[in-house]
Amino acid sequence: MNRFLAVVVHEYKKVVLKWSFLVGTLLLPVLAGVFAFVPAIIFSLKGEPTRIALVDRSGTVAPRLKDNLSADKMAERARKAAADAAVDITPSQDEQLKRTSAQLVESFIFTDVDPAGRSLEEIRSDLTSRITAEEFDAYLIIPPDVNDTAAVYEFRSRKGADFITNDSLRDALNSAVRSQRLAEANISEERLAAIGKPVVMDAKGLDDRGGEKDTTGLMIASFVIGLMIYITLAIYGQAIMGAVVEEKETRISEILFSSARPFTLLFGKLVGVGLAGLTQLAIWIVSAAALLAFLALQTDLSQLVGAVPEISLLMIFYFLIYFLIGYFIYASIFALIGSVVTSLQEGGQFAFPPVMLLLVAFYFSLAVIRDPNSTLSFWVSIAPFFAPITMPIRIMAETPPFWQIALSIGINVLAIAGLVWLASRVYRVGMLMYGKRATIPEIWKWIRYA
Amino acid sequence: MQEEQATLQAKGVTKRYGDFTAVDDLSFEVRPGRVFGFLGPNGAGKTTTIRMIVGITFPDEGQIKLFGQPVTTETQGRIGYLPEERGLYKKMKVVDQLKYFAALKGVSGREAERRIDFWLERMQLADWKKKKTTDLSKGMQQKIQFIATVLHDPDLLILDEPFSGLDPVNVEFLIDVISEFRTGEKTIIFSTHLMETAERLCSDILLINKSRKVLFGSLREIKESYGQNLIAFRGEGAGAILEDRAMIDRVVTHADEQELHLAEGVDAQDVLRRMVAAGVSISKFEKTEPSLNDIFIDRVKGGDNSDE
User: Fold this and answer.
1) pLDDT tens-digit profile of B277-300?
2) Does the interface predicted TM-score (ipTM) exceed 0.90?
3) Is any Cβ of chain A less than 8 angstroms from the Cβ of B134?
4) A208 located within any domain
5) What does the alpha-carbon distance between residue A267 and residue B187 come to, in Å, rounded to a whole number?
6) Alpha-carbon distance A338 to nearest alpha carbon in chain B (angstroms)
7) In this structure, is residue A28 part of a structural domain?
């Protein structure tokens, strides 16, 4: 027992006192933040305005186009889009909309160019040379007949890859042309809007007590949790493999084996590194809870927080249980691989099968998010290797009957017992075999005779 | 040899790996307080035998008893084992590694720190306590490994090729430390293929070759029983006498002297008398005993011949 504790403490400290642990623990929340906010910040940056030479051969579209790109119109359309999607807009979000629209408007400067009887070819070559001289950034030629559906609206730009500008311009142009067509057909804009308005579908899930819950938030949260379990299992599995390979490579295992039984050493290693993993998860869970509590106090973002599904303490307890189950399953596979190979690089190559299994489990979890009560969801949340990722997601989406959770835990604990036994058989022989990688028949022999 | 309980007793120990028999019916005893040399060429089965003594593997047949008990984790705690293949954690501080190895042997807390400080001081490595393995030279790492072997004050020390990779100064230093360790009732088994060192340090030896026991006993007895007549000779004009096969079996020429192996039943005195009579100018004529190296080579080669 003393020796076992010594191994556990040693392995725990070895992981937790490393820089990589500290960095990893802090980095994940920071990375999550970066992924959430940086794109928004980048897109809100104001670019150089695009100077567009406008050749309106119809004589009717240009004023409408400019009007469509005015600040008021853009904000109004964004509000309308939000209303169609049945999302409520808070006053602060409305303010935000106005700001972004204004920015977009400032990014266009139009100059009308009179065709003045010149041929299309002449106009083109004239404008192209002026763009090359950097007098303009782009030109847009509007064809004479708006009702000609085959007509081409020619837009040429030096900044062809600026998709934000191109998209806003295309939208504004589309709507301008449509308005003109409607006007010519004597149909009012309002009438068309009423005809074309999509139905409002209010999609919310019902929990087992008949209460409403927001499925979008649930889906995102499930996905995040599935991804988190996948990443931690892969990281800690590889950590175990690294620890095993180091002891084999440096020949420390011979000293260790003369001090304690191989099983004590292997199991102590699994428990020690597993506790380090739990420590990291606990830090993440506590900091996520603190972050959400902080956000909830900011009125601006209370909307966002409201979308986070309710996670009970029981759910967190289940997550931790399944983290441990998944950890012991994958860590013993990684330990087995570590004791067979001769170097970490070689181990990396042979880590492919368990990583593949984890990936499959992650993909199954997507199916579980879609339909937590299907037959497939039932089986993958009970099967070893998959349950550690799929069952927590199923529990969150639609907590299954307790007997299913119990069955899943039972089957997986049995799988762990088998895998740990297998790994320790291979470990005790493999760790003393230096120089060459064992073949599958050799490993089979170790398992049978060791 | 039976007057006191043997530290180690091996009876008919056999270990097979598939079709290959690594150790074949090996029996021997190690008495307390002795330095026991475990000798043999590479691949003879030394490391396999040692692994069975320290409880890493177990014999297929036969029995090993340590301090009168079968091999268990408890006997492991009384052994200090320095393996031939040895290493340290690369990125861990010296003191942390030593603490871990001590804890695995049941020594922890203050006591462990006290012993670590003592040994680091003794090994002249006190300044390196907080350094990582990667900062140490190979020789320093060897010394740290030795400290890890003795931290729990074992009753039996097993050193497998302890001097490999050490420079001559450190070899002498380690020999001093080992000799110090010997005082008291400590027993040392050490395995080597360096016969000169074994001859210097060991009181008893076991020689194995090709998985089997070849020689076993005290060094003194072995040398005496091996008693071939051997003379270290340096001189001029003995040509004819050295050619006389009735008297001298063979001559081995070294750099500055010759080793004369006398024929069966020939007395060294007779040889000397004949040389004097023949007017040989003798600058050295000394009866010597065979070196362990000679015995080793003779027995190992002999073993080869009898096998084939």
Assistant:
1) 888 888 888 888 778 887 888 777
2) no
3) no
4) no
5) 33
6) 16
7) yes
